[in-house]
Structures are given as C-alpha cells and as structure tokens.
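Box S1 | Example of a co-folding query
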Amino acid sequence: MGSRAVIEKQFRFIRTGLFVAWVVVSAIIVGWSVRIAQDQALSDVMQKAGETLAVQTEVLSGVLDKYRLLPPLLSRQSSIRALFVRDAEGNAQAVDARRTAEEIAAMSAAMDVAFFFPDGELLANARGSFANSAPDLPELIEVARQGRLGRAAISFGEGQRTYAFSSGVRREGRFVGVVVVYVDFYRVEAAWALSARRIFVTDKAGTVFLANDPAWRLQPVSQLHETGRIDRYLIDGRFEDRLDLARRLPLLEWDLHVLADPAPVDAARLSAAAIATLACLLAGLIALVALRRNEVAILRARTDRATALRLERVVRDRTRALSVTNRSLSHEVEVRREAEERLRKTQDELIQTAKLAALGQMSTALSHEYNQPLAAIRSYADNALRFLDRGMTSEVSGNLIRINGLVDRMAELSRTLLSFSRKPGATVGPVPLGTVIDEALLLARPRARAAGVVSINVGREVAGLYVQGGRIRLGQVFVNLINNAIDALSGTPGAMVDIDARREGDRVVVTVSDNGRGIAPEELPRVFDPFFTTKGIGEGIGIGLSIADNIIRDFGGTIMASNRPEGGACFTINLRAAEPPDTATTRRLEPIGGSGTG
Ligand code: ADP
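Box S1 (continued) | Returned holo structure for adenosine-5'-diphosphate
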C-alpha cells in the first residue's frame, strides 16, 4: 500500500502543477480573447462612426456652402442694390426691402435675411430676429466693406445659434450697405438627433456650437470632459482618442465630432471573457476528470497486479506443497506395491506349503490307493501267466483288460496329484464346478475311506454349474474343506460329507457340510484366522481356511462358517456365476490333467 500512497502523492503534485499551468494559460487565453473581441468590436464601431462622420461632414458642408454663396450673389443684384437708398428726408424704402428679404429667406430656408446700411442701421429683415441689435454686426459690416465675405458664429437668446455670412453692396463704386444671411441649423440638428451617436461641432474656441444633445450646446468641450459627459463613454485612456472621431470643416475652422458608442465593445469584451472563461473551465474540468480517471486506472492496475501476484504466490506455494505430498504419496505407493509383492510371494509360498501339508496328510491313504491296484495288477498278471501256460487265452485277455483299467485309474490319480502340486495361475475365468469337485474328491476319497467316512454325497445340480474362478485354486479350497470335514468326523458313526450347490441369480452358492462334532461357538469367528487350529502338533498348522478365504476373495466371492442345527459344521461359499463356454473353448482351456490354470 506504500506504493499506492506514492502514486497518490505524485498525482497530487501533478494536479497542483496542472492547476497552476491552467490558471496561467486560462488567464492568457481569456486576456487574448478579450483583446481580440474588443479590437474586432472596436474596429466595427469605429468604422460605423467614421461613416457617420463622413456623411454628416458632407451634409454640414453642403448647408454652409449653400448659404456662403448666397450674400455675394444677392449683393450683385441691381434690384437689391436699388433698395439701399434714402430719400431726401433720409427714409429708406423699408417696405420693398422687407418684402425682398422675406422672399429670399423663404426660398433659401435661411433663418433670416437682413439688409444694413454701412452705419449699422437696419434697412429691413425677413423675420425680425435681431432688430437693431444684431450681434457681431460691426465686424460683418467692416469685412464686407473691405470686399470680403464676412462671417460670424452667433448665439443669442435661449441657446439660439446661427451663422452669419455678409457681403457688401456697392453702387457706382460706393459702399452702400450689406446683405447678411443667417444660417438655420435646425434641420441639421434635427437629423443628428436621430442618431444614437453623439454628434457635435466645436468652434475654434472649443465651445460646442452644434450638438444633437441640446444640453451640450454652447458648453465648452473642456467642461463636458470635466463633467464626464464625454468620458463617461470612454473605457479607458487608450480609447479616448479613437472613440472621438473628428473632422475639420476648413471653411469655418470648425471640428465635427462623432462619438462612437462603446457599448458593443463592452459587450464584446464581456461575452468574450465569459466564453473564454467557460471554455477554460470546461477544459480544466475535462483535464481534471481525465487525470482522476488515469489515477484510478493506475491504482486499480496496481491493486490488480498485487492481487494477481498474491494469488500466484499462493498457487506456487500450494503447488509446491502438493508436489511434496505427491512425492511422498508415490513413495508410499511404491512401498505398498513392494509390500503387496512380498505378501503375494508369501501367500504363494503358503499355498504351496498348505498343499504339501494336505498331500502329507493324504500320503498314507494315497500310497494305499497306489499299493492296492499294484497288488491287484500283480495278482492279475500272475494269473494271466498261469492262464497263458494253460492256453486259456480268453481269461488272459480278461485279466489284461482289468490291468489296463487299474493302470488308467492310477494314471488319472497321478495326473490329478501333479496338477494339484503345480503352482497356481492368477487368471480368473469360467470353471466347471462339477469337474473341480470330482478332482478334489479323487484326492480326498482315499483318506475318507481310511477315516471310515461312510459316504460323500454330491448334489445333482453341481454338475451343470460354472463359476468365476481358477480351477486349481478352487480345487484346493474343496480339498481343504473335505479334509477338514474328514478330520472332524473321525470316530463319528455314520460319518458323511454333503456337497451341494445352487444358482441364485448371478451367484452360485456351494455348501460343504458334515455331521461331525461342529465348531465351538467361540471359535466360529476365528476359524479363518491364519494359524488358528485346534489340532495337535503334526496334524494341522491352521492356514487352510485362511488361504481358502483369500482364494475365494480373489474370485470376488465369500466363504462363511456355521454349524448345522442337527450337528456338524457347514461351510458356505458364494461365487460369481459363469455361463458354460462352448465345447471347443472348454476343450482348449481344460486339457485333461490341467494346464495349470489355478
Ligand atoms: P488346520 O486344519 O490345519 O487346523 P484350518 O484352517 O483348515 O487349519 O482349520 C482351522 C480350524 O477350524 C481347525 O483346527 C478346526 O478346529 C476348525 N474346523 C475346520 N473345519 C472344521 C469342520 N468341518 N468341523 C469342525 N471344525 C472345523
């Protein structure tokens, strides 16, 4: 987890660095955007103001030009010149003059038209605006006397303003009066009033002479600046010159001003700042989210890797432990296998020992079994010789046939003995139960006879049954059971052994019972124990039933001991049933004398 803290610390560091960078870059971007938007808006505003200025300059120049030319033209008119006379009494022709002035004023839309004598006396005027007290009159007359165009900016009454042009009237070279035309700016200002921009004219002295805002009229520009009426529109010093566009009217030495409206510039600056700020915030947010995601992904990858490593370690440990267990297991298996091998060898040896023991038990009876036919053969042969001497050939052949029969019987017995003494095989297969029991009886019968056993009965069903087993080993089991029965029957009157078998489903149940003394109840559980015997030294070693139990187990069967209610012991063998093989196979598998299939 230490590395997790390191990663988090690194990311905190990166975040701080990015934040600082973001602030700087955002400030630059916002400032730059505001600047661009402002320049753009400003140039628009200024262009529009410039257009207004150009148009209004033209308008004003046109108006002034028109009135400038009017006095010189009028002063040359003879009808006008004729007006400037006084009669003998010194009275002027005021009525005519007045009518003429009115006509001119009406036609030219001038504010007023006036005629003055050189001494300043009013001959007549159209509207009676100034009467005798016309302002600036002396200068206007004086300039006109000198033959130049007189001019004067005049303000009067309640903020009334006009511009006067004067021209001298001469008759026969004599200066007889002046024509003064007063310009009316009413229409110009009315037109300007429609414009949203401030439009005004300043004179040489810096006084606002014309303006579309009545409040500005006749105010010194400096005062307007002082009261903030102009500055109010300025954003900062940088814009002051540029927002106030001015053009000089050379004729009057007036300056026409147009104040551009800075509101769009403000708005543009504001919206640019807002948009740029929002964009920067958004970019910052996205960067933050991306960084956070990155961090989470790295942390998760780290956790995953740690988990995977832990898991790997666990798996490795487990595998190691398992392979150790595996090794010890396979060692154990090897040890077991060896032990089994040893056991099997011992068992084989024991079987051989048991067989030899059985043979030892039976040897007396067997030698009797051989001696008896041998003696018979001898006497048959002796008699045959005698019959031959007498030429009794038919008796001779009779004796030879009997000898043959006895030899056959002896050969059969010896074959069985041989096969019994052979080492058993390990295979399990279908075995004819009747044949196995016959062979066992062949070996056991002589001893039974010697022991006084009256009868050995074999059930009728036995002959047709087949069981799963090995022929020699199964034979050994029966030899053992029959020998034990014979032992238990010694001294019993009417001693007999019963062998029976029946099929029960896929099993075959064989019983070997006798009417001997039976098995003591406390000994019943022990009779299959190795080396358990009740017999005296040299009579039994106590391995017969133990081996029988092992053999039957090998065949997948069971063997049990019990006592018959009527007296005597009963051994019950339960074996897997087998189907009889076809004759050819039977012959091949079971040649007479046994091939050693145990
Ligand atoms: P052994 O015959 O060498 O004693 P076995 O294992 O064949 O060894 O038999 C063990 C014991 O079981 C015998 O000593 C005997 O006491 C008892 N036994 C076996 N068969 C019979 C029988 N048919 N009747 C009475 N007792 C028997």
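Residues 263-389 form the longest helix (127 residues). The longest strand covers residues 160-171.
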